Structure formats: structure tokens, C-alpha cells
Amino acid sequence: MGRGIVIRQAHFPGRAPIDAYGNGGFRFADMSHRGSLLLLPSGVYGWGLDEGEPLTVAAFERVLDESKDIEVLLVGTGKQLRPLPAELKAALKALGISSDPMSTGAAVRTYNIMLAEQRAVAAAVIAV
Question: InterPro entries attached here (predicted)?
Fold first, then answer.
């Protein structure tokens, strides 16, 4: 019997600036990824959130798990800025994380700058 296809969670260990975004994905570290991303201290992860889907606390669970290493979370909400729900803002604030929603393009640019400054930054960016 064959084992079948093993689907691995998309994960890049380490921190990397985003080189490009658009066409439903991102380019970083000489790789391309279709879909949304979480850019965390432990690495870059595929994130199963599409533009327009609710920004729930559950969707940000991995971010909350790494809160001790994050001071600022940039949230790229897609083409348009969407405010973060009060419940999500409160969950982040309770862990000492300042959250800043903006368009995905602005989040990518800000993340790259803060990463270069070696700040304790993370980003959750929805593919556009």
C-alpha cells in the first residue's frame, strides 16, 4: 500500500523581508507563496485567511502563542484597511502586543523597515 501524499504545513524557519506581493501571494527568501502569511519570530507560516474573512481571535492563535517575542503586530487586511475587532485587539493588548491594521501593501513595507531595525515585530498579511 502506498502512503499517499503528505501535505506539510508551509513554514520557512527564520525571519525574512518580503520581496514582493500581489497576484494572490508573496515572494521572500527566493521563494514564492500563494495565499496569506504569518511573519513571526519563529518563522514564516502559510495562513489560511482570505480577504474579507472575519479577523477572529482563533485566526491569530499562532501569533498569541509567540506573544513573548512580539511587541508590534502589523495586520495587512487586504487591499482596504479594515479595523480589528475589539475582541482581537483586547486579546493582543492583554499579552502586551500593540496591533496596527493597514492595507497589505503598507503592512509589508512597514514590516520590512521594522525587521531591518531589528524590532520585535510580527505581521499577519492577507494575500491580495
Answer: MTH938-like_sf (IPR036748), NDUFAF3/AAMDC (IPR007523)
